[in-house]
Design brief:
The protein is built from ten helices and 19 strands. The protein is an alpha/beta fold and about 375 residues long. The chain is globular and about 65 Å long. It catalyses: trimethylamine + NADPH + O2 = trimethylamine N-oxide + NADP(+) + H2O; hexan-3-one + NADPH + O2 + H(+) = ethyl butanoate + NADP(+) + H2O; heptan-2-one + NADPH + O2 + H(+) = pentyl acetate + NADP(+) + H2O; hypotaurine + NADH + O2 + H(+) = taurine + NAD(+) + H2O.
Length: about 375
Amino acid sequence: MPRIYRSVIINTSKEMMCFSDFPIPDDFPNYMHHSKIMEYFRMYARRFDLLRHVRFGTSVCRVSKRPDFAATGRWEVVTESEGKQESAVFDAVLVCTGHHTDAHLPLHAFPGLESFEGWYLHSRDYKSPWAFTGKQVVVVGTGNSGIDIAVELSHTAKQVFLSTKRGAWVMHRVAEGGYPFDFSYLSRFIQLLQSLLPLSVSNFVLERKLNARFDHALYGLQPQHRVLSQHATINDDLPNCIISGRVRVKPIIQEFTETSAIFEDGTREDIDAVVFATGYSFSFPFLEDCVKVVENQASLYKFMFPVNLEKPTLAFIGYVQPLGAIMPISELQCRWATHIFKGLQELPPASTMLADIAQTKEKMAKR
Protein backbone atom coordinates (compact mmCIF):
# COMPACT_ATOMS: atom_id res chain seq x y z
CA MET A 1 0.00 0.00 0.00
CA PRO A 2 1.23 3.52 -0.73
CA ARG A 3 2.40 5.35 2.37
CA ILE A 4 3.38 8.91 3.19
CA TYR A 5 5.67 10.59 5.66
CA ARG A 6 4.12 12.33 8.64
CA SER A 7 4.87 15.90 7.58
CA VAL A 8 3.38 15.77 4.07
CA ILE A 9 1.69 18.99 2.95
CA ILE A 10 -0.30 18.94 -0.29
CA ASN A 11 1.19 20.78 -3.27
CA THR A 12 -2.11 22.08 -4.62
CA SER A 13 -4.36 24.63 -2.94
CA LYS A 14 -7.79 23.76 -1.60
CA GLU A 15 -9.47 26.13 -4.05
CA MET A 16 -8.08 24.10 -6.95
CA MET A 17 -8.42 20.56 -5.59
CA CYS A 18 -11.90 20.26 -4.08
CA PHE A 19 -14.71 18.31 -5.68
CA SER A 20 -17.31 20.48 -7.41
CA ASP A 21 -20.24 19.43 -5.22
CA PHE A 22 -18.55 19.82 -1.83
CA PRO A 23 -16.17 22.78 -1.26
CA ILE A 24 -13.42 22.40 1.31
CA PRO A 25 -14.37 24.27 4.54
CA ASP A 26 -13.27 27.89 4.83
CA ASP A 27 -11.34 27.26 8.04
CA PHE A 28 -9.07 24.66 6.39
CA PRO A 29 -5.67 26.07 5.29
CA ASN A 30 -5.01 26.73 1.61
CA TYR A 31 -2.29 24.07 1.54
CA MET A 32 -3.40 21.23 3.76
CA HIS A 33 -1.55 18.71 5.88
CA HIS A 34 -2.39 15.18 4.79
CA SER A 35 -4.53 14.69 7.90
CA LYS A 36 -6.76 17.56 6.76
CA ILE A 37 -7.15 15.98 3.32
CA MET A 38 -8.20 12.74 4.96
CA GLU A 39 -10.67 14.68 7.08
CA TYR A 40 -12.10 16.27 3.93
CA PHE A 41 -12.52 12.87 2.27
CA ARG A 42 -14.33 11.55 5.34
CA MET A 43 -16.58 14.61 5.40
CA TYR A 44 -17.37 14.05 1.73
CA ALA A 45 -18.18 10.38 2.32
CA ARG A 46 -20.51 11.24 5.20
CA ARG A 47 -22.19 14.05 3.26
CA PHE A 48 -23.17 11.71 0.41
CA ASP A 49 -23.64 8.55 2.52
CA LEU A 50 -20.92 6.68 0.63
CA LEU A 51 -19.43 4.49 3.35
CA ARG A 52 -22.23 1.95 3.16
CA HIS A 53 -21.12 1.22 -0.42
CA VAL A 54 -17.45 0.69 0.49
CA ARG A 55 -15.89 -2.59 1.60
CA PHE A 56 -12.70 -1.91 3.55
CA GLY A 57 -9.90 -4.40 4.17
CA THR A 58 -10.57 -6.10 0.85
CA SER A 59 -8.00 -6.95 -1.83
CA VAL A 60 -8.81 -7.37 -5.50
CA CYS A 61 -7.21 -10.59 -6.70
CA ARG A 62 -8.46 -10.81 -10.26
CA VAL A 63 -10.62 -8.90 -12.73
CA SER A 64 -11.52 -10.97 -15.79
CA LYS A 65 -14.02 -10.92 -18.62
CA ARG A 66 -17.14 -13.02 -18.25
CA PRO A 67 -17.67 -15.69 -20.93
CA ASP A 68 -20.46 -13.54 -22.36
CA PHE A 69 -18.36 -10.34 -22.28
CA ALA A 70 -18.70 -9.65 -26.02
CA ALA A 71 -22.47 -9.36 -25.55
CA THR A 72 -22.78 -7.97 -22.00
CA GLY A 73 -19.44 -6.27 -21.22
CA ARG A 74 -19.56 -7.76 -17.72
CA TRP A 75 -16.60 -8.56 -15.49
CA GLU A 76 -15.97 -11.19 -12.84
CA VAL A 77 -14.11 -9.74 -9.87
CA VAL A 78 -12.44 -12.00 -7.30
CA THR A 79 -11.74 -10.36 -3.95
CA GLU A 80 -10.17 -11.50 -0.69
CA SER A 81 -11.01 -10.43 2.85
CA GLU A 82 -9.78 -12.01 6.08
CA GLY A 83 -8.29 -14.90 4.13
CA LYS A 84 -11.49 -15.75 2.27
CA GLN A 85 -12.05 -15.26 -1.44
CA GLU A 86 -15.32 -14.54 -3.15
CA SER A 87 -16.45 -13.72 -6.66
CA ALA A 88 -18.97 -11.18 -7.93
CA VAL A 89 -20.12 -9.96 -11.33
CA PHE A 90 -20.04 -6.25 -12.25
CA ASP A 91 -21.37 -4.34 -15.24
CA ALA A 92 -18.31 -2.07 -15.38
CA VAL A 93 -14.97 -1.49 -13.65
CA LEU A 94 -13.06 1.68 -12.78
CA VAL A 95 -9.35 1.21 -11.98
CA CYS A 96 -8.25 3.95 -9.58
CA THR A 97 -4.99 2.57 -8.15
CA GLY A 98 -2.96 5.54 -9.39
CA HIS A 99 0.65 6.06 -10.44
CA HIS A 100 2.25 5.49 -7.05
CA THR A 101 1.78 1.75 -6.81
CA ASP A 102 5.16 0.00 -6.78
CA ALA A 103 8.34 1.55 -5.39
CA HIS A 104 10.96 1.96 -8.12
CA LEU A 105 14.30 1.09 -6.53
CA PRO A 106 17.01 0.71 -9.22
CA LEU A 107 19.70 -0.81 -6.99
CA HIS A 108 21.56 -2.18 -10.03
CA ALA A 109 22.39 1.40 -11.03
CA PHE A 110 24.50 1.93 -7.88
CA PRO A 111 27.64 -0.26 -7.88
CA GLY A 112 29.00 -1.13 -4.45
CA LEU A 113 25.68 -0.71 -2.67
CA GLU A 114 25.77 -4.36 -1.61
CA SER A 115 28.90 -3.65 0.46
CA PHE A 116 27.61 -0.40 1.95
CA GLU A 117 27.60 -0.70 5.74
CA GLY A 118 24.98 1.96 6.37
CA TRP A 119 21.29 1.54 5.65
CA TYR A 120 19.11 2.54 2.74
CA LEU A 121 15.39 2.79 2.06
CA HIS A 122 12.92 3.99 -0.52
CA SER A 123 11.12 7.25 0.16
CA ARG A 124 7.83 5.38 0.57
CA ASP A 125 9.30 3.80 3.74
CA TYR A 126 10.44 7.14 5.17
CA LYS A 127 8.24 8.39 8.03
CA SER A 128 10.12 10.96 10.12
CA PRO A 129 13.62 12.47 10.45
CA TRP A 130 14.37 11.35 14.00
CA ALA A 131 16.09 8.09 13.09
CA PHE A 132 18.61 10.13 11.07
CA THR A 133 19.62 12.51 13.90
CA GLY A 134 23.33 13.31 13.71
CA LYS A 135 23.81 11.21 10.56
CA GLN A 136 25.28 11.99 7.17
CA VAL A 137 22.45 11.29 4.70
CA VAL A 138 22.24 11.34 0.92
CA VAL A 139 18.84 11.70 -0.72
CA VAL A 140 18.75 10.44 -4.31
CA GLY A 141 16.21 12.24 -6.50
CA THR A 142 14.84 15.76 -6.82
CA GLY A 143 11.16 15.10 -7.24
CA ASN A 144 8.65 16.36 -4.70
CA SER A 145 9.32 13.60 -2.18
CA GLY A 146 13.10 13.80 -2.51
CA ILE A 147 13.26 17.54 -1.93
CA ASP A 148 10.68 17.45 0.88
CA ILE A 149 12.63 14.73 2.68
CA ALA A 150 16.00 16.45 2.16
CA VAL A 151 14.61 19.69 3.63
CA GLU A 152 13.07 17.91 6.61
CA LEU A 153 16.21 15.85 7.29
CA SER A 154 18.34 19.00 7.26
CA HIS A 155 16.87 19.96 10.65
CA THR A 156 18.07 16.78 12.39
CA ALA A 157 20.83 15.20 10.31
CA LYS A 158 24.47 16.23 10.60
CA GLN A 159 24.59 16.85 6.85
CA VAL A 160 22.25 16.18 3.94
CA PHE A 161 23.44 15.64 0.37
CA LEU A 162 20.88 15.92 -2.42
CA SER A 163 21.95 13.86 -5.43
CA THR A 164 20.38 14.79 -8.75
CA LYS A 165 20.78 13.26 -12.18
CA ARG A 166 19.35 16.07 -14.29
CA GLY A 167 18.44 18.92 -11.96
CA ALA A 168 14.97 20.26 -11.27
CA TRP A 169 12.87 23.36 -11.76
CA VAL A 170 11.62 24.20 -8.27
CA MET A 171 8.33 26.03 -8.05
CA HIS A 172 6.86 27.47 -4.88
CA ARG A 173 3.45 27.39 -3.26
CA VAL A 174 3.20 31.12 -2.54
CA ALA A 175 2.87 33.50 -5.50
CA GLU A 176 2.83 37.29 -5.72
CA GLY A 177 0.69 38.93 -3.08
CA GLY A 178 0.70 35.78 -0.98
CA TYR A 179 -1.85 33.93 -3.09
CA PRO A 180 -1.47 30.19 -3.87
CA PHE A 181 0.66 29.63 -6.94
CA ASP A 182 -1.81 27.37 -8.72
CA PHE A 183 -4.73 29.67 -7.88
CA SER A 184 -2.85 32.54 -9.55
CA TYR A 185 -1.35 30.85 -12.60
CA LEU A 186 -3.52 27.87 -13.54
CA SER A 187 -6.35 29.82 -15.14
CA ARG A 188 -8.21 29.77 -18.44
CA PHE A 189 -6.50 33.02 -19.39
CA ILE A 190 -3.02 31.58 -18.83
CA GLN A 191 -3.99 28.44 -20.74
CA LEU A 192 -5.22 30.61 -23.62
CA LEU A 193 -1.92 32.50 -23.68
CA GLN A 194 0.03 29.25 -23.69
CA SER A 195 -2.06 27.91 -26.57
CA LEU A 196 -1.31 31.05 -28.60
CA LEU A 197 2.40 31.27 -27.82
CA PRO A 198 5.09 28.84 -28.99
CA LEU A 199 6.08 26.37 -26.28
CA SER A 200 9.62 27.79 -26.23
CA VAL A 201 8.24 31.23 -25.30
CA SER A 202 6.11 29.83 -22.47
CA ASN A 203 9.14 27.93 -21.18
CA PHE A 204 11.31 31.06 -21.35
CA VAL A 205 8.82 33.19 -19.42
CA LEU A 206 8.27 30.67 -16.64
CA GLU A 207 11.97 29.78 -16.35
CA ARG A 208 12.85 33.45 -16.05
CA LYS A 209 10.30 33.87 -13.27
CA LEU A 210 11.64 30.83 -11.38
CA ASN A 211 15.25 31.98 -11.76
CA ALA A 212 14.25 35.41 -10.45
CA ARG A 213 13.40 33.72 -7.18
CA PHE A 214 16.72 31.86 -7.11
CA ASP A 215 19.22 31.13 -9.86
CA HIS A 216 18.97 27.38 -10.41
CA ALA A 217 22.45 27.22 -11.98
CA LEU A 218 23.99 29.02 -8.99
CA TYR A 219 22.33 26.51 -6.65
CA GLY A 220 23.45 23.46 -8.64
CA LEU A 221 19.93 22.59 -9.80
CA GLN A 222 19.94 23.85 -13.42
CA PRO A 223 18.00 21.16 -15.30
CA GLN A 224 18.77 19.75 -18.70
CA HIS A 225 15.05 19.89 -19.58
CA ARG A 226 12.67 22.82 -20.07
CA VAL A 227 10.29 23.67 -17.26
CA LEU A 228 7.11 22.51 -19.02
CA SER A 229 8.68 19.24 -20.15
CA GLN A 230 8.51 17.47 -16.79
CA HIS A 231 6.19 17.16 -13.83
CA ALA A 232 6.63 20.12 -11.48
CA THR A 233 8.71 20.02 -8.29
CA ILE A 234 7.26 22.27 -5.60
CA ASN A 235 9.06 23.36 -2.44
CA ASP A 236 9.32 26.65 -0.56
CA ASP A 237 12.29 25.91 1.72
CA LEU A 238 14.98 24.29 -0.44
CA PRO A 239 16.83 27.51 -1.42
CA ASN A 240 17.20 28.47 2.26
CA CYS A 241 18.55 25.02 3.10
CA ILE A 242 21.09 25.16 0.27
CA ILE A 243 22.29 28.70 0.95
CA SER A 244 22.75 27.87 4.65
CA GLY A 245 24.71 24.69 3.83
CA ARG A 246 22.27 22.33 5.49
CA VAL A 247 21.61 20.71 2.09
CA ARG A 248 24.45 20.28 -0.39
CA VAL A 249 23.54 19.53 -3.99
CA LYS A 250 25.57 16.74 -5.62
CA PRO A 251 25.57 15.03 -9.02
CA ILE A 252 24.57 11.39 -9.41
CA ILE A 253 26.31 8.72 -7.35
CA GLN A 254 28.94 6.82 -9.30
CA GLU A 255 29.46 4.11 -6.69
CA PHE A 256 29.29 3.27 -3.02
CA THR A 257 32.03 2.05 -0.73
CA GLU A 258 31.53 0.52 2.71
CA THR A 259 31.18 3.93 4.36
CA SER A 260 30.91 6.54 1.62
CA ALA A 261 29.41 7.62 -1.68
CA ILE A 262 31.54 8.64 -4.66
CA PHE A 263 29.81 11.12 -6.94
CA GLU A 264 30.14 11.65 -10.67
CA ASP A 265 32.32 14.74 -10.15
CA GLY A 266 34.85 12.64 -8.26
CA THR A 267 34.01 13.92 -4.78
CA ARG A 268 33.60 11.45 -1.94
CA GLU A 269 31.42 11.91 1.14
CA ASP A 270 31.07 9.76 4.25
CA ILE A 271 27.50 8.45 4.38
CA ASP A 272 25.46 6.77 7.10
CA ALA A 273 22.15 6.40 5.26
CA VAL A 274 20.59 6.71 1.81
CA VAL A 275 17.02 7.64 0.95
CA PHE A 276 16.11 6.66 -2.61
CA ALA A 277 13.40 9.05 -3.81
CA THR A 278 13.49 7.37 -7.20
CA GLY A 279 9.80 7.32 -7.95
CA TYR A 280 7.25 4.65 -8.64
CA SER A 281 6.06 2.32 -11.33
CA PHE A 282 2.57 1.02 -11.84
CA SER A 283 1.11 -2.28 -12.94
CA PHE A 284 -2.20 -4.08 -13.08
CA PRO A 285 -1.50 -7.64 -11.90
CA PHE A 286 -5.20 -8.21 -11.22
CA LEU A 287 -6.17 -7.61 -14.88
CA GLU A 288 -5.85 -10.55 -17.23
CA ASP A 289 -3.88 -9.09 -20.15
CA CYS A 290 -6.52 -6.45 -20.88
CA VAL A 291 -3.95 -3.68 -20.52
CA LYS A 292 -0.18 -4.06 -20.78
CA VAL A 293 2.27 -1.67 -19.13
CA VAL A 294 5.47 -1.13 -21.14
CA GLU A 295 8.20 1.13 -19.75
CA ASN A 296 5.74 2.50 -17.21
CA GLN A 297 3.24 3.47 -19.91
CA ALA A 298 -0.13 2.03 -20.88
CA SER A 299 -1.77 2.64 -24.25
CA LEU A 300 -5.08 4.17 -23.21
CA TYR A 301 -7.32 6.54 -25.14
CA LYS A 302 -7.21 9.90 -23.33
CA PHE A 303 -5.29 8.01 -20.59
CA MET A 304 -8.55 6.27 -19.72
CA PHE A 305 -9.92 3.66 -22.13
CA PRO A 306 -8.36 0.47 -23.54
CA VAL A 307 -8.85 0.40 -27.28
CA ASN A 308 -9.53 -3.21 -28.21
CA LEU A 309 -12.28 -4.24 -25.79
CA GLU A 310 -15.49 -5.52 -27.33
CA LYS A 311 -17.45 -3.40 -24.87
CA PRO A 312 -16.17 -0.13 -23.28
CA THR A 313 -16.86 -1.14 -19.69
CA LEU A 314 -13.35 -0.65 -18.28
CA ALA A 315 -11.82 2.75 -17.55
CA PHE A 316 -8.77 4.06 -15.69
CA ILE A 317 -9.07 7.10 -13.45
CA GLY A 318 -6.18 9.34 -12.39
CA TYR A 319 -3.44 8.12 -14.74
CA VAL A 320 -2.49 11.64 -15.76
CA GLN A 321 0.13 13.83 -14.11
CA PRO A 322 -1.10 17.39 -14.48
CA LEU A 323 0.46 20.67 -13.43
CA GLY A 324 -2.08 21.08 -10.66
CA ALA A 325 -4.57 19.03 -8.70
CA ILE A 326 -5.70 15.57 -9.78
CA MET A 327 -9.10 15.63 -8.02
CA PRO A 328 -11.05 17.85 -10.48
CA ILE A 329 -9.59 15.94 -13.43
CA SER A 330 -10.54 12.60 -11.85
CA GLU A 331 -14.05 13.90 -11.25
CA LEU A 332 -14.45 14.80 -14.93
CA GLN A 333 -12.96 11.46 -15.95
CA CYS A 334 -15.50 9.66 -13.79
CA ARG A 335 -18.36 11.65 -15.32
CA TRP A 336 -17.20 10.73 -18.82
CA ALA A 337 -16.62 7.07 -17.94
CA THR A 338 -20.08 6.65 -16.45
CA HIS A 339 -21.64 8.29 -19.52
CA ILE A 340 -19.80 5.75 -21.67
CA PHE A 341 -20.83 2.85 -19.41
CA LYS A 342 -24.49 3.89 -19.54
CA GLY A 343 -24.46 4.31 -23.31
CA LEU A 344 -25.13 8.04 -23.18
CA GLN A 345 -21.96 8.63 -25.21
CA GLU A 346 -19.85 6.47 -27.49
CA LEU A 347 -16.13 6.18 -27.94
CA PRO A 348 -14.64 6.85 -31.41
CA PRO A 349 -13.67 3.96 -33.70
CA ALA A 350 -10.58 2.00 -32.63
CA SER A 351 -8.52 3.47 -35.48
CA THR A 352 -9.28 7.00 -34.30
CA MET A 353 -8.37 6.16 -30.71
CA LEU A 354 -5.10 4.50 -31.75
CA ALA A 355 -4.18 7.53 -33.85
CA ASP A 356 -4.90 9.82 -30.88
CA ILE A 357 -2.73 7.68 -28.57
CA ALA A 358 0.15 7.78 -31.07
CA GLN A 359 -0.20 11.55 -31.47
CA THR A 360 -0.22 12.08 -27.70
CA LYS A 361 2.92 9.98 -27.27
CA GLU A 362 4.64 11.95 -30.01
CA LYS A 363 3.74 15.26 -28.34
CA MET A 364 5.03 14.02 -24.98
CA ALA A 365 8.28 12.83 -26.53
CA LYS A 366 8.85 16.26 -28.10
CA ARG A 367 8.23 18.04 -24.81
